[in-house]
Every structure is written in C-alpha cells, then in structure tokens.
Amino acid sequence: MINLKSINRYVIKEYCKSLLVVLAVMVAVIFIINLLDEFSYFKSKPDLKFFTFILMTFLKIPNLCINIFPFITLFGGIFYYLKIYNFNEIVSLRVAGYSNIQVIMLPALTSLIIGYVVIFFFVPLSSSSLKIYEEIRSKYNDTKNLVFVNETGIWILDRTENEKNIIRVENMSKNFKSFNKITIYIYDNNNNFIKRIDSEKGSVDNKKWELEKTTIVSANKRVKENFLSKYVYDSGFKIDDIKNYYKNTDTNSLFDIQNEINVLKDKGYSPVDLRIRYQKLMSFPVYLLTMSILSGLMIINLGKTSNYIKYGVYGIVISVILYFLNDLSITIAKSGIISVDLSVWIPIFLITLINLVGITQVNAK
C-alpha cells in the first residue's frame, strides 16, 4: 500500500532543498555585489575599520534576500520541477495517484507556509540587522540622519559653522508650510548649552525659520528672558531636507509598522511608503504561492526538457517583467491614479490570472 504521507514529506523535502540551493547561489551573488558596493564607501572613510566594513556587508544580506525571495521561489520551483521530470520521479507520483494539479499545489502550499514563517520570524531579524547597519553607517557620515521622527516630535540636528543645534517640532502641516510648537536648543561646537528658543508656530523660507510668539531663554542667568512676537532663526539646511526625510521602510517589520504609520501621520508626513511596505509584507506569502505555481505550470505546459538554461532565461525574463511591473504600479499609485494599497497586489493578481489559464491547460492534459 502506498504511503501518501511519506510521499508528501519527500516532495516537500526535495522542493525545500531546491529552494535552498537557489538561495545559496543568490546569497553568494548578493554578497559579492554588496561587498563591491560597500568597498567604495570603505575607501572613502579612512577611519572605518575593516571588521566594521565586513560586518556592514553581512548586515544588509538578510533584507536583500527577503526582497528577492519571490524570484528565488520562481527559480527554485523551476529547478525542482525539471529535476523530478529529468529523473522520472513524476512517473512515480502519477503511479501513486497524483494529478498534475496536486504535483503543483503541494510545493505551492509549502511556499505559502514558508512565506508566513519569513514574515513573522525572519523579517523582524532582517529589519533589526538593517537598523544596526544604518546606525553604524550614520556614525561615519555627518550628512545623513539629520532628521528623525518619533512620538515626541520631529527632531533635527542643525549644524552651522559655529554651532550645533537641535530643533524639535511637535508637528507640521501636510504642505510643509507651517510648523507648530518649535523648540531650538543652541549649543556651541564644544557642546556647551547657550540658549533655548521656544515658539508657538513658524514657517521655513529657504534656510530661514520665521518664528512667531517666541521666547528666548539664555544659559547665562544674568541675561533676562526675552519674548518676541517675530524672530528669524538662520538654519544650516533647507526645507527640502525636511520634506525629503524618510528612513528606509525595510527597517520596519509587521509588528511595528502600524505604529510608525500613525506617528508619521500625526507629525504631518505622508505614510505612503510605509503603507506600501505593509501591503508587501501582507501579500508576501501569497506572492510566493503564485510564483511557485507559475514555475510548475511553466515546466508542465512549455515542455518537459532538461534544458536548464532555457528555463533559466524564461525565469530571468519573468523576473525583469515583474520587477518593472511592481515599480510601475507603485509609481502610478503615488501619482493618485490608483490606490496605494491596491498597487502592490496588481502584479500578484496578474500572475494569478496567468496561473488560472495555465491550470485549465494542465487539467486538459
């Protein structure tokens, strides 16, 4: 009597082995590319230690692997299905009573489960490693991370020739024209506190902060507190530096992304990029499912040959098309033509439609 559970376990094991082979190859490629990319940065920073340089290279790899995992699933599936056909294992599966649909769906459901494992266990780890990477890099780059947003407000590190100041803004309008509850801490280059400027509201014109209802408190107790209806603060950077602020959304996992969205909305920033990140995480397991099904349909419908190069080229073409389709749909969404949330799902819907057509053809065989 045929033990279907044993066969299912064997299929899942072989499919996972194929995914691991492709993953190992991709990790090696990513490491080399990332190493070359970070090396150019390493050469420009003589105070950056070699160990830190290698650490930075490794810290980015988990996130990059997760971002391309749908394509790893596609190539892993192609590799698996070619293997079972080339070694006639498909004949054994047919004898055991497996239909073409069952042959495809077992690895596909495995991919779905892997997707949930990645989202709930590996994404938080990759997000944490990316945060560490950005923290290390910021230590060697004086021009990055000048703006930081959290629950307490918008914090700005403003460096001028003679001062190093900290600006805190409680929130701002969505058009970046007005700011509320502004506090500016003035320090000299030796980190000695000079004075504090408090303002009810203000606006920024180029590098000038035009403040209203301003109170100035000096560190020198002999200097009296001043109250001014109008005050101009000369900043070291432009309003565009505040507008263009955004940290890497990949540093957010599914567990903290909603809170981050609420914080940005409260402070006046658009949470569009974070909403895209949220939908990408939510759709990730389904994306893997559809890519796995697509790989099986390719082999069954396009011809069962041992030509790995042929199907490798097919896989590359499909990956390039999906990559640009993803970017196109998100760009269209940001322009307001379609919903931002829907834009992430459009490529998955199209793959699903292609899979449905392929499944009808498989059923006819």
Account of the protein in words:
This protein has 365 residues and is of the alpha+beta class. The chain has two domains: 4-140 and 270-363, no CATH class; 147-243, no CATH class. It is built from ten helices and seven strands. It has helices at 4-44, 50-67, 69-86, 89-95, 100-139, 239-243, 257-267, 272-302, 308-334, 340-363; strands spanning 147-150, 153-159, 164-172, 179-187, 193-205, 208-218, 226-234. Strands 1-2-3-4-5-6-7 form a seven-stranded antiparallel beta sheet. Helix 7 (257-267) crosses helix 8. The longest helix has 41 residues, at 4-44.
Keywords:
365 residues, alpha+beta, 2 domains, 10 helices, 61% helix
Helical stretch count?
10
Report the order of strands and helices: HHHHHEEEEEEEHHHHH
Q: Based on DSSP secondary structure assignment, what is the total number of beta strands?
A: 7
Q: Kindly, what is the distance between the CA atoms of the first and last residues, rounded to a whole number of angstroms?
A: 27 Å
Q: How would you classify the helix and strand content by structural class?
A: alpha+beta
Shape: elongated
Q: The biggest beta sheet, please?
A: 7 strands, antiparallel
Strand content bin: 15-25%
- Poorly predicted residue ranges: none
The radius of gyration computed from the alpha-carbon positions, rounded to a whole number of angstroms, is 27 Å
Strand order of the largest sheet: 1-2-3-4-5-6-7
**What value does the average pLDDT take?**
82
Quickly count the domains: 2
Q: Percentage of helical residues?
A: 55-70%
